[in-house]
Amino acid sequence: MLAFLLTLGALLGVVIVLAYAERKVAAFMQDRVGPTEAGPQGSLQAVADVLKLLQKEDIVPAAADKSLFKLAPILIFAAVFAGFAVVPFAPNLIPAGIGIGVFYLLAIVSLDVVGLLMAGWGSNNKYAMLGAMRSVAQIVSYEIPAGLAILSVVMITQSLDFQEISYQQGALMNQFPGLEYEMNWLFGIEALGINTTTIGGITTWNIFRAPILLVSFVIYFIASLAESNRAPFDIPEAESELVAGFHVEYSGFRFAVLFLAEYSMMVLVCLVAVVLFLGSWNTPLPNIGPVALAYWTSGTVGEVSGILWGIFWLVSKTFILLFLQLQLRWTYPRLRVDQLMHLCWKVLTPVALAVVLIAGIWRLLMV
Amino acid sequence: MERTAIKKHTGFWYVVKSLLSGLSLTWKHFKNARNRRTPEYVTDENYFKQADGQVTLKYPYEAIPVPDNGRYRLHNEIDDCIVCDLCAKICPVNCITIESVKATEDIGMTSDGTKKRLYAPVFDIDMAKCCYCGLCTTVCPTDCLTMTPVYDFPEVDIKNMVYHFTDLTPEQAEEKKQLFAKQQEEMAAAKAAVLAARKKA
User: Fold this and answer.
1) 4Fe-4S ferredoxin-type domain: which residues (chain B) (predicted)?
2) Which residue has the higher pLDDT, A243 or A307?
């Protein structure tokens, strides 16, 4: 219960920051100033927006399927929020440390689709329906390359446990029960004979342990943009053609929940990308001989220092990815539906399949 | 002119390059957002040297100066006005309302030496209707009606957009009207007396 509340609180905080950052980053990239009035530099704008939404009337259209309409936002948010349960925030700090976290995450986040369809169908609105159908088609399609990219990580790390995957990507690896005698080699090739187990830092991140995962990281990142309905894959929510897609009929608190779910999804996919590919909560600084940067910036496992350093590195890496998501939104135009499907089925899926194959072979080099 | 074929670029690396160039463009703008345009007049030497950075001005707090001879809100210098009604006649949107009362005594001259003969109990300009064409200022014979560089004068109540330029209070206006009516009566009486005297003779 405590984990639930803490995660929810942290998530709300991050989403508020992200909503403000979105507006400021968008403004700066377009040579505008963004919010300036509410609080210093407009920093309370997102809070003001939330307060405004909470005060608004909860309108349920007369022709809507009321039970579906009312339930959908809660289901969408619940599906996304449940995904946070298995994300490790620091060594020894994970809301629910289950052994099949990766599998659970893929499954629970897919529930999102059901909620979207409920919202779109329940609204009894053409635009909402079209948006929901596009959204579902897109999310279901992009789960395949995303799933394959994650699969290649699972093959390299030989684990479905996010915490174990995290430990493998740093100098603290041997402190995880079951990994006491594991070794990391530069680029994962034992034949090179360069042992990076105690060097840690960036050299043991998954994209360095097996450089082929860099490709799978790019595939995952593209697919995750599509899964969180972010530009340039925002055709389900295309403001200019569908008004706002599946949430066009929502107002007040329910809209706030949908908004929250959308931004939580962005945070979640970035967190997962960091955990799987970019070293999780591990420091990027390696130990260089006597200069033990990795140990100095990792703290002690199980103590407050370890938790703080872990959260710091995880959150900073996540925010870099989130910034990239924002920048992509203000850089690239929206794809057409056919281009979207072309990219998914004819480009990303075959490449991801090839990466899975290569990752399997790479794993043979690592042992 | 012969058309040359446009070479169509394709291929993985070309696409990657174009994606990256897009990102670098937005990144450049993001980076330059540290600078912000200063509110300077067009004659300032910095005006054309601020190509980068945020262009938005926080308007109510800062604004680009307008020219000294900007032609925005109308102003009537009622002391110079001879209440000739030309401005009201030429106004294409009928935003000027004038009523006049003839003066019974000498009421002085305008600053350019024209003799004033009329009072204006009503001289209203409805700025909400005004289209800023400036025709009224060109026909004004004493140059008392001018356009000022004031452009920011919104009102909550639209009635406040009607500007009253008269220098008479309603009581004063009523007094002038009665004076004029009295004078007319006296003149009519005098005229009648003269006519009656002529008939007798």
Assistant:
1) 70-101, 121-150
2) A307
Q: Is the pLDDT of residue B93 over 90?
A: yes
Residues A19 and A82 in one domain: no
What is the band of B1 on the pLDDT scale with cuts at 50, 70, 90? low
CB atoms within 10 A of CB A343: 20
Contact present, A93 and A310 (Cβ < 8 Å): yes
| Residue B199 structure tokens | 């008939």
Residues spanned by the domain of A116: 56-366
Contact B56 A33 (CB under 8 A): yes
Q: How far apart are CA B133 and CA B131, in angstroms?
A: 6
Mean pLDDT (chain A, rounded)? 86
Q: How far is CA A192 from CA A170, A185, A187, A270, B69, in A?
A: 19, 8, 9, 32, 79
Q: At residue B102, what is the residue type?
A: K
CB contact under 8 A, B29 and A28: yes
Considering only CB atoms, which chain B residues are within 8 Å of A36? 58
Domain count, chain A: 2
Closest-CA distance of chain B to residue A350, Å: 15
Q: Note whether A67 and A193 are same-domain residues.
A: yes
Domains of chain B: 11-65 (no CATH), 74-180 (3.30.70.3270)
Q: How far is A116 from chain B (nearest CA, A)?
A: 30
Mean pLDDT is lowest, of A93-107, A294-308, A311-325, for A294-308
ipTM, interface predicted TM-score of the complex: 0.80
Nearest to B88 by CA among B99, B75, B100, B97: B97
Do A32 and B54 lie within an 8 Å CB cutoff?
Answer: yes
**In angstroms, rounded to a whole number, what is the distance separating the alpha carbons of residues B170 and B168?**
6
**Assigned token pair, A364:** 């043979």
Contact A142, A344 (CB under 8 A): yes
DSSP assignment of A175-186 = GSTT-TT---BG
- Tokens encoding A260: 């929250």
- Does residue B30 belong to the interface with chain A, where contact is any CB pair within 8 Å? yes
Q: What is the pTM of this model?
A: 0.82
**Whether residue A203 is found in the same domain as residue A274:** yes
**What pLDDT does A39 receive?**
83
